[in-house]
């Protein structure tokens, strides 16, 4: 989980490009999405945790909100570190703790996305299947959520514990890891990539099956299926589009980048530099996920959508309704105007 790369691995003619991109452009972009995500996820959490946990879907969505908030917490640390503030102590905190929390939250969120797709599949396509009612139970969903957090912590937290070596002259996150830490880092990285691709294939299968099932059902009863298909496709497209846009590019380059860290002799300096730049750019797309997940909540959860629209309509009504103080001031203005007009008429 290497946020901070040693600059001595970069070619001389590309150091300036790297410094500009990683220390000037990316901090600004992370600051923007951090501000946006803080507002969106704050509103989402405020609404969602007022919604009763009445279904497995709500359980998974609430856990996604928690993962997004934890992921969002790591952005300010990265921004300050990339801007060069905080010194080596801040870099140590980023390497050992916030970087690990970032990846823990990201892959936990990905796992919950796959659980949501599985829950939707059994509820819509396999509703008569015996396992469907079991997976729809709130208690089972809570158990799967706890299991997800437990497994992800088991694989991710050792990356913080095993980053216990003394700092070398050339600082990098990998230099802080022991030999066991480097092996665990590589193993956990491959595990996470495996989690992603399993989740991606599962989501494609589940949502393709749901779309086909909805289309066949409405065609069979000879009703206009355009509205139903549009609603179904909107939910499917929103989740899959966010998933593909945010996570696929990063995971395409994740494996070669990890290999370039662990087996430096097999990669030239220039190739390691290129892989690092691609990794940082695609990692930003993954970080952008915290701004796009509220779109998924809006389309996937009717309770959340209705609560949000209700809050927005109530706010609009309050804004349109004049307060007592405003009404009193308006009356005073009218009276003042009448008096001025009367005085002008009298003087004339």
UniProtKB/TrEMBL annotation:
- The protein's name in its UniProt record: Purinergic receptor P2Y14
- One GO molecular function term? G protein-coupled purinergic nucleotide receptor activity
List the gene name.
LOC107555001
What membrane topology is given?
A: Multi-pass membrane protein
Organism encoding this protein: Sinocyclocheilus grahami
Which Gene Ontology cellular-component terms appear in the entry? Answer: plasma membrane
UniProt cross-references to InterPro entries, sorted A to Z: GPCR_Rhodpsn, GPCR_Rhodpsn_7TM, P2Y14_rcpt
Top-rank taxon of the source lineage equals: Eukaryota
Name the principal localization, coarsely classed.
Answer: membrane
Gene3D superfamilies given in the database record: Rhodopsin 7-helix transmembrane proteins (1.20.1070.10)
Task: List, alphabetically, the PANTHER family matched.
Answer: P2Y PURINOCEPTOR 14, P2Y PURINOCEPTOR-RELATED G-PROTEIN COUPLED RECEPTOR
């Amino acid at each position: 989980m290497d946020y901070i790369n040693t600059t001595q691995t970069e070619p001389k003619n590309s150091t300036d490009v790297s410094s500009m991109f990683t220390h000037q452009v990316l901090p600004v972009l992370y600051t923007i999405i951090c501000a946006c995500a803080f507002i969106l996820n704050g509103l989402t959490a405020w609404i969602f945790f007022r919604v009763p946990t009445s279904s497995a879907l709500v359980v998974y969505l609430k856990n996604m909100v928690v993962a997004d908030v934890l992921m969002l917490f790591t952005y300010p640390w990265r921004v300050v570190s990339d801007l060069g503030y905080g010194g080596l102590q801040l870099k140590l905190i980023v390497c050992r703790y916030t970087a690990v929390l970032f990846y823990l939250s990201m892959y936990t969120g990905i796992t919950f996305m796959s659980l949501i797709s599985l829950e939707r599949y059994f509820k819509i396509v396999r509703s008569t299947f015996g396992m469907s009612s079991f997976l729809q139970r709130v208690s089972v969903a809570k158990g799967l959520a706890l299991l997800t957090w437990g497994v992800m912590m088991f694989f991710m937290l050792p990356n913080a514990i095993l980053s216990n070596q003394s700092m070398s002259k050339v600082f990098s996150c990998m230099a802080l890891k022991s030999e066991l830490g480097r092996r665990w880092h590589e193993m956990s990285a491959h595990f996470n990539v495996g989690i992603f691709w399993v989740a991606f294939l599962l989501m494609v299968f589940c949502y393709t099956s749901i779309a086909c099932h909805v289309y066949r059902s409405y065609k069979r009863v000879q009703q206009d299926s355009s509205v139903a298909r549009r609603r179904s496709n909107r939910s499917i497209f929103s989740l899959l589009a966010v998933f593909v846009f945010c996570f696929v590019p990063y995971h395409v380059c994740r494996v070669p980048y990890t290999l370039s860290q662990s087996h430096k002799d097999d990669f030239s300096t220039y190739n390691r530099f290129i892989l690092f730049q691609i990794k940082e750019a695609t990692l930003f797309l993954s970080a952008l996920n915290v701004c796009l997940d509220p779109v998924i909540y809006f389309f996937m959860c009717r309770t959340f959508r209705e609560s949000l629209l209700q809050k927005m309509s109530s706010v609009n009504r309050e804004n349109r309704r004049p307060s007592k103080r405003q009404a009193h001031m308006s009356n005073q203005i009218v009276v003042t105007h009448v008096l001025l007009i009367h005085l002008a008429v009298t003087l004339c």
